[in-house]
Amino acid sequence: MVIELIVVGKTVGAWLESGIREYTGRLEHYTRFIQTVIPELKNARNLREEQIKATEGELILDKLSPGNHVVLLDENGQLPGGSVAFADRLQSLMNRGTRKLVFVIGGAYGFSASVYARADEKLSLSPMTFSHQMVRLIFAEQLYRAFTILRGEPYHHR
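The structure corresponding to this sequence follows.
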């Protein structure tokens, strides 16, 4: 299974970039992982929130293929019930024959209605709010943790 993470805007902060590189590098031992960055809109200050979401939504949808299983990382998504439950969900998708699993972290205003309509699932990492920048690192670590759980490796202490 190929896993892709689509994010809106580049990661700001060397320490975040370093952490993300650390965990995405570790992921290469378990799966093919791709991170796709959708550039921030250049004229965003002149646009309304709905215009920004619509434009970013079109750019996100352009990156998706019909067979992709799409999971939005969204504050109103379902909480996975912990890291083990998240790992079990990944295993279930692999067992189902999912070829490409795409996780999407939207921009500052969230997702457009068209992106929500395309999504197969919405996932929340926490009831707490994190910056979109932090979510990238937290998600990369949780994805790595999930694969170590599935392999019975000692990274995750049960």
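The helical segments are 14-27, 49-62, 83-95, 113-118, 132-150.
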